[in-house]
Design goal:
Blueprint: H1 11-35, E1 42-43, H2 45-52, H3 56-64, E2 71-73, E3 76-80, H4 81-89
Antiparallel strand pairs: 1-3, 2-3
Length: 90
């Protein structure tokens, strides 16, 4: 069970915590990308929709159902072109 703690903090402390969290996520994403092929093409949601000739709602549905793998950075979702092509060929 998760514990809820109420802690008083200043605006600058909160800003620092958020900044550190974002930096950590970006570093994790960078590490993940470095493990993959450097020639990999990363697509935004709009680019993935264009490649697949579908709309954003369909893309969201495919992602939610696990039919299409995605990568997240904060609130942004990205797709690897090779993974999209692999799904299409399977």
């Amino acid at each position: 069970m998760n514990e809820v703690k109420i802690v008083q903090t200043t605006t600058s402390e909160l800003s620092h915590l958020i900044s550190d969290s974002i930096k950590k996520e970006l570093e994790n994403f960078k590490l993940e990308l470095s493990k993959s092929n450097f020639n990999e093409v990363i697509l935004t949601r709009e680019e993935a929709c264009k490649l697949l000739s579908i709309d954003l709602t369909t893309l969201w549905s495919y992602t939610k159902k696990g039919k299409l793998p995605s990568r997240k950075i904060g609130n942004r979702v990205y797709y690897l072109k090779s993974e999209i092509l692999e799904v299409l060929n399977s």
